């Protein structure tokens, strides 16, 4: 039996929006998943984003905190993907 | 001991900021300022119409504040001021302003230098140069990373 | 490519100088300024009424111009501005202002730093702190000499 | 027979003026002398200045140029003594 999925809206920042639009809808397990698993799901569901995600240079921001790949995300979290930053 | 950090959505005047910073001094002998201005031409010489800086909610300001706090902790400075634009910036306009004050000029120089190196590589902004016929995302250069690396020792 | 050097006999406003310098930019991305302010207390904590700077005829201005020209030759900067007071300076007033502009922030920082180190040890001024009960001549510290030495490599 | 002497007015800068006044009158040979010789004459004629002059840290400025000890000075030259300088 397939696990129930829920939709998570992900904001794509910087150059990632050029590839995947400003927002991506990703189906994730109802009980959430790790950021590493989320990256895999995004790559499956939005193949155009697979390349930047495997670069190792994209970080996830969950509820306004940049998190490590083992952090968990749930439906309802405010998730964004950050490509390399550059101020100044 | 104070750090004041602002994410600016409109054009600002570096001279005015230096004036206000100087006015607030409490006897420090040394003030260093850095201003970064948007360029009118890309590295390959092509004209730039605007530099566009994207930021992300509270995270951008928090990243700026963390850098200012690190500078306050690391160098013998008594105050610092950091202002960074977000949004669309015309050539010549200021992108970033940093000021530091200290009893010692070396600390003031190093802290301003450090803050700029960190802003270039760690502040949460994404920037692109726009011209009529192209958009180009700008990431930190290897020089920027090398500059930031100097402070790791 | 220009260096503008002034020996000021009256109080000046660093913010105004930064504004004029910025206004004159020709597309440079990086501007660094340094301002040195007169302190209200000596190193031992005693109150200072005034810092008095003596200069000598054309030699003082010539020494400032030589330092600015060295900076222009040595660093990849396109302009610099140097203003130095002479005479009686009240606590808080600016003693010296240096601004540098470059396409590259590292060059702008280093050139301003270099100019200050050289002004401290080579510009033809003699300075003394005056308080109601004493006069104390100030010479470059060993730290000032060490700072200036950094550029000899 | 003693050599004819002429008076040279020397400006004392910075802390040297505290010791010797703002101006010192020094008798020098009519045909001039080197800066090194001048220092010796000043030390003789104004003993209070002997100590700073032997420190090796005082430089002579002749006609608005800082000169080396072998430079020559004549009556009519504009001469100043510079103790260690300090701007900024």
Automatic annotation (TrEMBL), chains B, C:
Enzyme Commission identifier(s): 2.8.1.12
Protein name, as recorded: Molybdopterin synthase catalytic subunit
Annotated function: Converts molybdopterin precursor Z into molybdopterin. This requires the incorporation of two sulfur atoms into precursor Z to generate a dithiolene group. The sulfur is provided by MoaD.
Complex and partners: Heterotetramer of 2 MoaD subunits and 2 MoaE subunits. Also stable as homodimer. The enzyme changes between these two forms during catalysis.
Catalytic activity: 2 [molybdopterin-synthase sulfur-carrier protein]-C-terminal-Gly-aminoethanethioate + cyclic pyranopterin phosphate + H2O = molybdopterin + 2 [molybdopterin-synthase sulfur-carrier protein]-C-terminal Gly-Gly + 2 H(+)
PANTHER family linked: MOLYBDOPTERIN SYNTHASE RELATED
Domain of life: Bacteria
Cited InterPro entries: MoaE_sf, Mopterin_biosynth_MoaE
Pathway this chain belongs to: Cofactor biosynthesis; molybdopterin biosynthesis
Disordered: annotated span: 130-153
Family under the similarity heading: Belongs to the MoaE family.
Keywords: Molybdenum cofactor biosynthesis
Pfam families in the record: MoaE (PF02391)
UniProt organism field: Qipengyuania mesophila
């Amino acid at each position: 039996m397939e696990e129930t999925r829920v939709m998570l809206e992900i904001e794509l920042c910087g150059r990632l929006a050029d590839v995947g639009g400003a927002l991506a809808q990703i189906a994730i397990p109802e009980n959430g998943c790790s950021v590493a698993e989320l990256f895999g799901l995004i790559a499956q569901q939005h193949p155009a984003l697979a390349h930047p995600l495997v670069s190792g240079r994209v970080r996830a921001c969950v509820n306004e905190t940049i998190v490590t790949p083992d952090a968990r995300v749930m439906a309802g979290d405010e998730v964004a993907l950050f490509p390399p930053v550059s101020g100044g | 001991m104070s750090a004041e950090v602002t994410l600016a959505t409109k054009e600002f005047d570096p001279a005015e900021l230096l004036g206000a910073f100087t006015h607030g001094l409490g006897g420090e002998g040394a003030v260093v300022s850095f201003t970064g201005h948007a360029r009118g031409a890309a590295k390959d010489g092509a004209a730039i119409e605007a530099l566009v800086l994207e930021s992300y909610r509270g995270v951008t300001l928090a990243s700026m504040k963390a850098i200012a706090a690190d500078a306050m902790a690391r160098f013998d400075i008594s105050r610092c001021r950091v202002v960074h634009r977000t949004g669309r910036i015309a050539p010549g306009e200021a992108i970033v302003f940093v000021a530091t004050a200290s009893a010692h000029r070396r600390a003031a120089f190093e802290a301003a230098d450090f803050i700029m190196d960190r802003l270039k590589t760690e502040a949460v902004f994404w920037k692109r140069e726009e011209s009529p016929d192209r958009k180009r995302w700008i990431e930190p250069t290897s020089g920027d990373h090398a500059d930031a690396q100097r402070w790791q020792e």
